[in-house]
């Protein structure tokens, strides 16, 4: 015969107290429970391997213990590192981390947020940049206001077009930092491989490059902006298109490291050596950037640290009700061997 489900009454019987007392211990109630009774309840829970019914608890408390994390591409090291950092900090606490992979689709992102709203998520992290889409903005505005009314904590990594706690990663600044490095090494003819067209992060990084060039009396011609999608394959495809303009440029800024790595691989495949023939830089400092050939010069956005900062912020605001501020991360230029000094 199958073992019967262990209930709060079984714990109370073993601990020789009432089910109400057991509930108070489980929920860290403000109602006083003696140390001796609390120890008996905890010992009974351990002996019976009792797990509280979190759904029932959620219905009573209007809390779900769910933290939703919305990412654009879970295969991208950028998001994988961030989620790893969040879970590292949340692990050991009684929260469920739900990850939604949306592939930068308006429909998928709206669906994910609706699902989290229906399940009364305690917090939602928009880990990817905002989608530059009117339908997205209109639909999300309504849902966001409903989530706020529910008391859900909302955190956006990079600015989003609705009133939530938006954390600036410094995407424009990152592009300026790495562009300045190219300029210091004598590069004036710089091309750009873009990110996804509907992504605000791509826009900010492109504007950072343009602004730094403008500060130095230079421009970024439209014909030197090549399509990309933040992926290795996107960088490889961009390299093939860039071959037609190879004599007009001395350096390329890729919108992220994955793109830069694909670019370097395909340029090498086409007989174009980095950095001897052309210099390449990226943004993010993904773990694999140091292992490319040559190792990639980039700007470090310490994504794992960002993830742990997110986890810390959520726990302090959910569990300890601290209303704490978010700890920002520092950008740093990582000089490796993909830039040639031509000054």
Fold and architecture overview:
It holds the Pfam family Peripla_BP_3. Keywords: DNA-binding, Transcription, Transcription regulation. This is Transcriptional regulator, LacI family. The chain is of the alpha/beta class and 343 residues long. It has three domains: 8-52, lambda repressor-like DNA-binding domains (434 Repressor (Amino-terminal Domain)), CATH 1.10.260.40; 64-169 and 303-329, Response regulator (Rossmann fold); 171-301, Response regulator (Rossmann fold, 3-Layer(aba) Sandwich). It is 44% helix and 13% strand. The chain contains twelve helices and eleven strands. The strands form three sheets. Strands 2-1-3-4-5 form a five-stranded parallel sheet, with helices on both faces. A four-stranded parallel sheet has the order 7-6-8-9. α5 links the parallel β1 and β2. α1 (8-15) crosses α2, α1 crosses α3 and α6 runs parallel beside α7 (134-150). It is elongated and about 85 Å long.
List the helices and strands and how they pair.
Blueprint lengths: L7 H8 L3 H8 L8 H14 L5 H8 L4 E6 L5 H14 L5 E6 L4 H13 L4 E4 L7 H17 L2 E5 L7 E3 L3 H14 L5 E4 L6 H16 L9 E2 L5 H11 L8 E4 L2 H13 L9 E3 L16 E3 L2 H16 L13 E3 L9
